Amino acid sequence: MVDNPKPWIYIAGPYTNPYPIYNTRRAMEWWDRLWKTNLIIPIVPHWTMFQDLLFPLPYEEWLKYDSHMLERCDALFRLEGKSSGADEELGKMLKQGKPIFLEKDYQPMLSWARDLIKK
Length: 119
Hints:
4-stranded parallel beta sheet, alpha/beta
């Protein structure tokens, strides 16, 4: 059993534009940074790129998978960049009443996580 469970944060951001490998690396860099805070369990949907290389699925299937992850997460961290998919994920989280943090909100997100853990 985990004492003071940490919030799960879904990292949403561009995937295809400008290039999937670049965007996946960027999301992974944020995963590393968030993980090292010891306050957050970051979730990176971009990692499915590796699964899709070996076991491809239609785009719609990946969207369903992402939706299931979104439901389980406590908040969304929106990376900068144009992305209709990330905007759609943001909208789903808003409908669920869950917090949204932008890159510029990094410090407030950490404060939010600290407060949540203390409860």
